[in-house]
Each structure stands twice: as C-alpha cells, then as structure tokens.
Amino acid sequence: MYKAKKPNKAAVAHLLDLEFQSRRNFIDSNALKEQDKPTKILQAYPCFKELDHAMDELRRIIEPNNCQYISEVKDRWETFYSKVQFYGVMKKVMKPPRTLNGSK
Prior knowledge:
Layout: H1 9-18, H2 20-28, H3 37-44, H4 51-62, H5 69-94
Helix pairs in contact: 1-4
C-alpha cells in the first residue's frame, strides 16, 4: 500500500497501528544482527523514512492511547523554547560583556 504513487497516509498509519505488536516483536527479536537492524527495519517498513510515520511510531511506543501525543509534545516544546530564549536574552542583557581575559 505504501509503494503506490500516492500512498494514503491515513490507511498506512491504520495498518501500522494494527500490526504494531508484531512489528515490535520483529524489531526486538534476536534474528537481526545489531549493526543490520536499522537497514533491515527500513527495508521492511520503508514508510519510516517519512517523518510523520516515524513520529507516529514514537507515539505508539510512548503513549499508545493518546492520539494527540505528538501535537502535545510540539506545543510543550514551543512553550519551553520560548522560555529558554527569553531567559537567555535576559541573562545576556543583565550582565555586561566580558573580554577573553575576564575584564569588562
């Protein structure tokens, strides 16, 4: 289904939801050598080359019952990022610049 010219992302995501446990068993099995795992996984599931499907898989692993997990993480990241930027700017404004030898 994914190899079609215009794959239906919703249908692919639904199939990935349905076969999650078997996919995890395949990934966790000892049949794959550790150094070959990424290559074999991407060969078996080429859809994970796309960011959307990879992020959905992360959601399936971390919060399987929360379909809004990724959007919530993105919102929390925006809030955190803006606070860090504000703190960085304020810290720089509050302290005068120093030269390399430590004098003002």
